[in-house]
Design a protein that fits this description.
Blueprint lengths: L12 E15 L14 E14 L2 E16 L2 E19 L3 H30 L16
Amino acid sequence: MPKTATNTNPKLQFSAHQIYMKDMSVTSPLMPQAFGLQWKPIINFNIDVNFKEVKPSLYEVLVDYKLNIELDENNKKINACTIHIQQAGVFGVKDATEDEKENLLLVKAPELLYPFIRENVSSTINRLGFPQIILPLVNFEPE
């Protein structure tokens, strides 16, 4: 698990080269019946972060985000929609220790990618015809 600390390495270099959506899927099995239900969403999400070396000093960071929205109908949870997004970026890391590299790729890079996930989820929810949802901020720092 990465450790967070202030950067005391003056040679360390970290840069974002490219940010892109690698994959996205949306299912909305309750349509159009969902429009007749009261909108009190029960929101569950899961986030997984991984990285792999693309070439020396260049890494792909992948944030795998899965959101499930359920609605309550007569005390029964019904799946309104599921959104699965894989947001990725290519990041350069040079002159870093292993701990510094892990912190940059598992904490800092996901912090840069997460706003793209929030925007994509928000716009997708709107396109489905549901009221706006603003996803909470996520702390990628290790506990």
